[in-house]
User: What shape does this take?
Amino acid sequence: MTTSNLDFIDDYFQKSELIPAIIQEKDTGEVLMLAYMNRESMRKTFETGYTWFYSRSRQELWNKGATSGHLQRVISIKGDCDKDTLLVTVEQTGAACHTGSHSCFFRDLL
Assistant: This one.
């Protein structure tokens, strides 16, 4: 996953300092969660091969699964056509949601 030249990262932060990252499970295609990345968390994700995000509530970086062990190993990262959203395909270990649910999207509204 590591790459030597990450200059393209700045292209994704022309509109905002934070961009949404949709996290999708590799084997099932299920959407697991939505989180936000800043330049540093995106760079750390590319460098380590595991997801890093920026917590808007805590105002700090966090490595998904660092405390719970429910890691997300990155398989691929795709940018959308406007370069302002990411689709991150992962191999999920354990639950993706802090509630213990496999996906954060478990509430049926309609």
Notes: The chain has a mean pLDDT of 94. Helices lie at 39-48. The first strand starts at residue 19 and ends at 25.
